[in-house]
Every structure is written in structure tokens, then in C-alpha cells.
Amino acid sequence: MNTAFRFIVARDHIMRGVFLFCAVFAILALMCITVFLFISGLPFIFRIGFGNFFGTTWNLHTGAYGILSMIVASLYVTALSTAIGVTVGLFTAISLYKFCPSKAVAPIRQLINLLAGIPSVIYGLFGLILIVPFLRDNLSSNGVGYGILAASLVLSVMILPTIVSVSLDALNAVPRNYYEGAQALGATKEQTVFKIMLPAAKSGVFAAVVLSIGRAIGETMAVILVIGNSPVMPTSLFQSVRTLTANIALGALELSGDSLTALISTGVVLFIFTLILNISFSMLMGGEKRGKKRTAKPAS
After folding, report:
1. Which residues contact 42 (CB under 8 A, 6 or more apart)?
2. Which of 20, 34, 84, 225 is surrounded by the most beta carbons within 10 Å?
């Protein structure tokens, strides 16, 4: 008995040490990346000036390192792909939740999850071979298929597994008595799902949206193949433009000196975008929880 007890205690100590190591490793990795980006990137931004770095001209031969056009392109692509992906993914999750035959839910969900395992370069090739020519021949008014719309369509498919899985898990986590109570009061299935269950799963749906935005703004390979990669200010959905991630990937292995440092500084901007996104989501969720506590607090 004493031997078994000592074994259990030792196992607990070992696993506690493993978990602590993993947590510390994750924190140290984040700190190293943050320190590297800011030490390498911020001095360069201050040296060339904010006007140059956030200008509209990117020309390495003349020393113009303006990334404003790429910031705008990244925001357009992220916003449009998220709008398309969240709309399709959320309605797919709702359909799987209550409007799809129960026997078909598991196979359909597995098929959707398989999308997450497809390499991003395959999505890019799919968009390059099928989506870009289709847009060029059928929708584009200037004969260009590359651009924001092509990249957004590719990214919207790539973020579907995240949105569907997280949203469906959030809906399934809502207590079933919410659904049964609404049905008992005479609400239809549609009214119950959209007015009771979906608002109750709001925090999980927001998490799905944030994760999808992070995936969309950070995707590189698929975007490079379908967006055209011209560092110009976007004025149309059918125009060759360049995102921040594509700009880094295109020059990281070839450039050196100030040009390479400019790419690191571009990474600083991406890091700040992601940080703002996560902080905003945390504040939103924190405010929602405080509001629920105030509502639930009994009147004195």
C-alpha cells in the first residue's frame, strides 16, 4: 500500500513538473519572439520615420519602405474573408446543431474538419487554377482575376473548420433545458435556436470569429498564389495587391540589410494587430461577464 501511494505521489509530482515546463516554455517562446521583433524592428521604424514606413510606396531600390497599401490590403482581405466564412460557417454549425438528421451530423462534421488538414499551398493552387480564372472570365470588369476577392474566397474556405467546430461546440455546451423550456412555452425550433440558444452561445461564437480572424490575417502561402503581390494601394476587388504576410514571405530569403529589417518591422505591425485583436476580445468578454454578474445580483 505504501509503495502504491508513493508511486501515485511521484507520478503527480512528475506530471506537475511536465505541465509547469510546458507553461514556462510557451511563455518564454512568446517572450523571445516579442523581444526579437521589437528590438530588431522598432529602431528601424524610428530611424526611417513613421511617414516613410507608413507611406504608400514600397520600393527597396529607392529606400521607400511604405507598408500602408499592404496594411489596407490585409484588412480588406481579412474583413471580407471573415464575413463570408463566418456567415457560411455559423449557418452550417446551426444546421448541424438542430436542423440536420442526427445520423448525418458526425460524417459531415468530420468532412468539414478534414479541411483543416489540407496544406495551405493546396488551397492556393485550387484558387490559382479555378477561382482566379473564373473571376477573370465572369466577374472582373478589367480582365484581372487576382486580387482581394480571390484571396478572400480562398481564405473563407480555410477558416470554415474553425468556425463550424467552435460554434457547434458552443451551441452543444448550452444547457438543454434552455431548448426544452422554450419549446414548452410554444416557441418554434427556429425561434428557439436563433433567439435562445444562439445568444446563450455568444461567447463561443465570438471566440470562433477571433480565431478565424487570426487565421485569415496570418495566412501566407495561399494568399501569395491568388492575390497578385503588387505593392499598390487597393482600389478594386480585382486588382493585384499584396498583404503584410505575403510581403514578408516574398523577401525573407532573398533580402538583407535594411530591406530585411523592413520585413521584420512589418512583422512588428502584424504582431501589434494580433495583440490588439486578442486584447479587444478579452475586454469584450470581461465586460460581458461583469454585466451578467450585475444583472444576476439580487436587489437590496
Report:
1. 265, 268
2. 225
Question: How far is 159 from 151, CA to CA, in rounded Å?
Answer: 12
Q: Sign of the C-alpha dihedral, residues 155, 156, 161, 163? A: positive
Q: How far apart are CA 235 and CA 77, in angstroms?
A: 13
User: For residue 292, is pLDDT > 70?
Assistant: no
Q: Cβ distance 170 to 207 under 8 Å? A: yes
Question: Which amino acid, residue 186?
Answer: G
Give CA–CA dist 154/123, Å, rounded. 7
Size of the chain in residues: 300
Q: Per-residue pLDDT tens for 88-119? A: 999 999 999 988 888 888 899 888 888 888 99
The average pLDDT across 6-29 equals 88
Distance CA 63, CA 280 (A): 35
In percent, the amount of the chain with pLDDT more than 70 equals: 94
Pair 147, 224: CB distance under 8 Å:
no
**In what helix (H) or strand (E) does residue 297 lie, and over which residues does it extend?**
none
For residues 270 and 89, what is the distance between their CA atoms, to the nearest angstrom? 25
Quick one: pLDDT at residue 288?
A: 58
Residue type, 209: V
CA-CA distance, 223 to 237, in Å (whole number)? 14
Separation between Cα atoms, residue 224 and residue 128, nearest integer Å: 10
Sequence-separated (6 or more) residues with CB below 8 Å from residue 167: 89, 90, 93, 94, 201, 204, 205, 208
197-254 residue pLDDT tens: 999 888 889 888 888 888 888 888 899 999 998 889 999 999 999 999 998 888 877 7
